[in-house]
């Protein structure tokens, strides 16, 4: 049998250090005051400004309209994360259900239209997408933020794959019982998919939460900023002439990563399942 | 059905009622701007001041991000028919908005149509024609206007036993002494703005054909002669000799070492004044942007950077009247003086400048006057500004090539050849967008 | 009617927010348009030739290729190494696993912000560290240094995904195969290359595509934050250039032409990906 060597642990520990240290430094830096960082560089030890900095970032109305604070951004990130994950799951389950369990004309056309979304990541169609959302009057709205993001095919493929693995006997049994398509979906398919739904929910929540480019374009109204979108605002302050508020910037960075990281760590097994299965 | 009709007519009546009452209420106008941080707060103060000053109109300022983001948002909104009444557009975007005939109502027209008097001679020299068309008609109302000046660390210069330089020749003499004293003698924060556009103005040199681009976008090309190439050769030499610091394209990255006391002199915006005085713990002062004495006719004034307010078209007369009355308020000496004091941007009218002088502001803070004095230095043929399309990208090309030059990836000749080639291609593309 | 009703929401969104903009991008790539919409000129393929002949586009494309190469192979390599080791440890296995994968949840711009902090010219500790070895690092000034910081940040962010896939791939290799292998060949290193690695190959190929896509598109946030709004002489990716020309420069035609090129690239990548998935099904 293979003997575990010290070197194996050393490699793993180095890997862990590489992954963790930057965030630890970020956190340490976020507990100092701006002048200390400005003069002394990144901080390796905890400072005494933890409460102060996080309170400022979370509750002090900042920005330029004096309307937005970290708490509002946290709320918006939550809305985006949940809205995106739930919307995507509902829409893609419905679509996958239609594709797998119904025979109808143009089925393959519909499938290919959905498939085409894989060919068109947001980044290659940003400018016209922005214009269209603008012309629909959806700029600076939650729906403009969420809806255009939820249509990509990944979720649909995922559920399609899963539904195809559901044994046909179940459908037969439901037919014999006289259950309609809706009843079959609601009473059999959805309960069966519970774990899958949970897994994909986590992936999609993290994905939605971490969106940057789209929110940057579509929300210019500060009261709609998400935490990740707020990063852009931090940079603008740096470009200006005052002392860069590294402490508050890093506090915001910590806040922006905390919820998705917690979810991934707590629901680790679902998360891994969702990731490995959905990307197949 | 009858029921439905009743409801419909009721709704219509209510809507009518709504509009008629609205005419008694204030007319709302929107102002999209790019003023972040402290500047944004002053913008809000101005808007509040205007709203309190009269009852007919109510202005709402909305922050839209960086200059680039604000312009893009304004353009997209215009295409969707949801443009604000006033859009703040920065110097590099001026050609885009002015070139789009019909997108804006010239500031001069909006003021005259509303019966508010307008005389372009009321505005200070460096500001007057920057946002005007080739006939000298003011299109954009200059708003935050600044100009590049030289800030210096008084202690550093004292330690080295030197005076702040008036010319680059003088700088070359004193720089080694500053280096000996342990300082990086000089840094700057915006190579295209300070060492290109304003270099042209300070030396009264042509920047582009077609009257620096004012006479139309077709066949406009960049003009780079020996003086600017010599200047960049000198700058590169200073960099290699440790007499000049280059910290990248970012504004703050270059200002930081000056604030920290590592760099003795820094070329920045006259609008940086307020920020520096809050940050640094050494005495500092400011003087004019140096020029090369060797260049014939050098020493002329600079022109402004910053941004102007444009009145968007497609709005009702009522709203346009409000825009005019807001412009009138904004350019009043009191507001301009307040803006000048709070932000460090220059006052745009002679009356406001006089008011600041009379108030004794420059006796207590002489450095605050450097910018405006530099703008009112005698001008020349090429000191009123420039007008070029896709100028944001042209600046990016300059930054790229200058960056390469500073890190030794290219030579001065090649850098300018590339800037001319890429820049002229962009100008040609721009002239096609408007159908030429 | 039922299936159409079920498909309607997705099809509607796809049509409005995917197909329509894509068609518009293709159309405007043949025009030069005044940003305000007052005038536009049909210019045929000018936007494409202008773009492909410009010095800058070639430079950006080259950087994107180099960036993609390093990000893909470094993050795959490190992740594979860590996964192989993590697959073997028994004690603390789940702790290692958690600590090595949580960075998945960090948003790219947040990763970029951390990168900016660590590599900052004035306050960054990495700059001090490298200075001890005589490397005077200047992000934002030196093209190479900025590229280095971008690649390190992008690799850091991408290791967890690869790690998770490799680890689950390894754990899918049955224990009996591994035991048989350990009897047949004594050297652990050889055993890895002759037995384990080929069995992981389908996962690896699949991850290759995922990583290329990541380096192309998902690193937008990292690039944007590290260049701090000012492209200057900094390295940027093709996607970032689409954004710069479209949103910063308001050059609709030029930006659209670049989008069309990228669409073609994604098209090719997706076809390869689907070919691979078919193969992958064969393997499993």
UniProtKB/TrEMBL annotation, chain C:
Domain ABC transmembrane type-1, first and last residues per copy: 65-273
Signal peptide region: none
Highest taxon above the source species: Bacteria
Bilayer disposition of the protein: Multi-pass membrane protein
UniProtKB keywords: Cell inner membrane, Cell membrane, Membrane, Transmembrane, Transmembrane helix, Transport
Subunit field text: The complex is composed of two ATP-binding proteins (UgpC), two transmembrane proteins (UgpA and UgpE) and a solute-binding protein (UgpB).
Family statement: Belongs to the binding-protein-dependent transport system permease family.
Protein name: sn-glycerol-3-phosphate transport system permease protein UgpA
Phylogenetic classification of the source organism: Bacteria, Pseudomonadati, Pseudomonadota, Alphaproteobacteria, Hyphomicrobiales
Gene name of this polypeptide: ugpA_1
């Amino acid at each position: 049998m293979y003997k575990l060597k010290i070197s194996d642990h050393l490699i793993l520990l180095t890997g862990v250090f590489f992954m963790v240290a930057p965030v630890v430094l970020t956190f340490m830096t976020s507990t100092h005051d701006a002048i200390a960082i400005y003069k002394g560089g990144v901080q390796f030890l905890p400072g005494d400004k933890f409460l102060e900095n996080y309170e400022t970032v979370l509750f002090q109305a900042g920005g330029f309209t004096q309307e937005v604070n970290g708490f509002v951004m946290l709320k918006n990130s939550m809305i985006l994360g949940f809205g995106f994950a739930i919307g995507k799951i509902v829409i893609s389950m419905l679509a996958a259900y239609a594709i797998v369990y119904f025979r109808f004309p143009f089925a393959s056309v519909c499938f290919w239209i959905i498939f085409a979304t894989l060919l068109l990541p947001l980044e290659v169609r940003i400018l016209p997408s922005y214009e269209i959302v603008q012309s629909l009057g959806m700029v600076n709205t939650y729906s403009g933020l969420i809806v255009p993001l939820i249509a990509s095919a990944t979720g649909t493929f995922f559920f399609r794959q899963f539904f195809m693995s559901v044994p046909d006997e179940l459908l037969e049994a439901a037919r014999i019982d006289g259950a309609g398509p809706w009843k079959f979906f609601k009473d059999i398919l959805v309960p069966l998919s519970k774990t899958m739904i949970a897994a994909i929910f986590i992936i999609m929540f993290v994905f939605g939460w971490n969106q940057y480019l789209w929110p940057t374009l579509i929300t210019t109204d500060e009261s709609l900023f998400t935490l990740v979108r707020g990063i852009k605002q931090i940079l603008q302050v740096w470009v200006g002439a005052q002392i860069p508020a590294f402490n508050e910037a890093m506090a915001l960075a910590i806040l922006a990563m905390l919820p998705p990281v917690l979810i991934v760590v707590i629901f680790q097994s679902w998360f891994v399942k969702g990731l490995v299965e959905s990307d197949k | 059905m009858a029921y439905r009709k009743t409801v419909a007519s009721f709704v219509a009546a209510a809507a009518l009622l709504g509009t008629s009452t609205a005419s008694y209420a204030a007319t709302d106008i929107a102002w999209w701007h790019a003023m972040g941080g402290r500047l944004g707060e002053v913008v809000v103060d101005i808007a509040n001041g205007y709203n309190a000053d009269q009852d007919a109109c109510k202005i709402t300022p909305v922050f839209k991000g960086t200059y680039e983001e604000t312009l893009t948002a304004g353009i997209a909104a215009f295409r969707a028919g949801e443009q604000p009444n006033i859009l703040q557009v920065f110097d590099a975007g001026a050609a885009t908005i002015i070139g789009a005939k019909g997108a804006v109502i010239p500031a001069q027209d909006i003021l005259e149509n509303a019966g508010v008097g307008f005389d372009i001679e009321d505005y200070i020299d460096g500001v007057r024609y920057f946002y005007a068309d080739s006939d000298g008609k003011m299109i954009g109302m200059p708003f935050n206007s600044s100009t590049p000046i030289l800030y210096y660390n008084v202690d550093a210069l004292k330690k080295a036993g030197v005076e702040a330089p008036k010319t680059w020749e003088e700088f070359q003499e004193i720089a080694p002494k500053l280096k000996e004293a342990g300082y990086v003698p000089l840094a700057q924060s915006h190579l295209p703005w300070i060492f290109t556009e304003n270099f042209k103005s300070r030396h009264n040199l042509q920047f582009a054909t077609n009257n620096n681009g004012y006479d139309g976008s077709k066949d406009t090309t960049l003009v780079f002669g020996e003086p600017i190439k010599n200047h960049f050769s000198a700058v590169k030499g200073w960099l290699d000799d440790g007499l000049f610091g280059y910290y990248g394209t970012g504004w703050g990255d270059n200002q930081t070492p000056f604030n920290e006391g590592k760099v003795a002199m820094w070329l920045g915006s006259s609008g940086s004044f307020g920020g520096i005085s809050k940050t640094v713990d050494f005495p500092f002062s400011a003087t004019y942007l140096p020029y090369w004495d060797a260049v014939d006719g050098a020493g002329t004034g600079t022109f402004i950077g910053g941004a102007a307010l444009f009145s968007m078209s497609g709005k009702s007369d009522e709203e346009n009247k409000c825009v005019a009355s807001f412009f009138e308020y904004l350019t009043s000496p009191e507001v301009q003086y307040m803006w000048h004091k709070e932000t460090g941007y220059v006052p745009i009218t002679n009356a406001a400048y006089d008011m600041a002088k009379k108030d004794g502001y420059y006796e207590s803070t002489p450095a605050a006057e450097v910018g405006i004095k530099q703008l009112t230095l005698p001008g020349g043929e090429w000191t009123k500004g420039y007008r070029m399309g896709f100028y944001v990208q042209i600046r990016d090309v300059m930054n790229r090539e200058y960056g390469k030059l500073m890190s030794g990836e290219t030579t001065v000749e090649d850098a300018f050849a590339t800037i001319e080639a890429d820049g002229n291609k962009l100008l040609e593309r721009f002239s096609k967008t408007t159908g030429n | 009617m039922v299936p159409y009703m079920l498909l309607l929401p997705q099809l509607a969104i796809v049509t409005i927010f995917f197909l329509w903009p894509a068609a518009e991008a293709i159309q405007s790539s043949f025009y030069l348009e005044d940003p305000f919409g007052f005038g536009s000129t049909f210019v045929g393929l000018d936007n494409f030739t202008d773009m492909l002949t410009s010095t800058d586009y070639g430079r950006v494309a080259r950087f994107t290729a180099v960036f993609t190469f390093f990000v893909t192979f470094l993050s795959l390599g490190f992740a594979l190494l860590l996964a192989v080791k993590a697959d073997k440890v028994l004690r603390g296995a789940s702790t290692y696993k958690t600590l090595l994968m949580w960075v998945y949840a960090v948003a790219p711009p947040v990763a970029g912000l951390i990168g900016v902090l660590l590599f900052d010219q004035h306050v960054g500790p990495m700059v001090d560290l490298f200075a001890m070895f005589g490397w005077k690092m200047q992000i934002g000034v030196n093209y190479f240094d900025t590229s280095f910081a971008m690649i390190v940040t992008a690799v850091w962010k991408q290791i967890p995904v690869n790690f998770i896939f490799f680890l689950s791939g390894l754990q899918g290799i049955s224990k009996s195969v591994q035991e048989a292998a350990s009897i047949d060949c004594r050297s652990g290193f050889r055993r890895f290359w002759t037995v384990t690695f080929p069995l992981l190959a389908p996962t690896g190929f699949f991850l290759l595509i995922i990583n290329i896509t990541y380096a192309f598109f998902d690193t937008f946030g990292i690039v944007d934050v590290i260049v701090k709004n000012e492209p200057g002489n900094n390295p940027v990716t093709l996607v970032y250039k689409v954004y710069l020309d479209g949103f910063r420069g308001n050059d609709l035609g030029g930006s659209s032409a670049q989008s069309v090129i990228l669409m073609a690239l994604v098209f090719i990548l997706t076809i390869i990906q689907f070919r691979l998935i078919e193969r992958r099904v064969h393997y499993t």
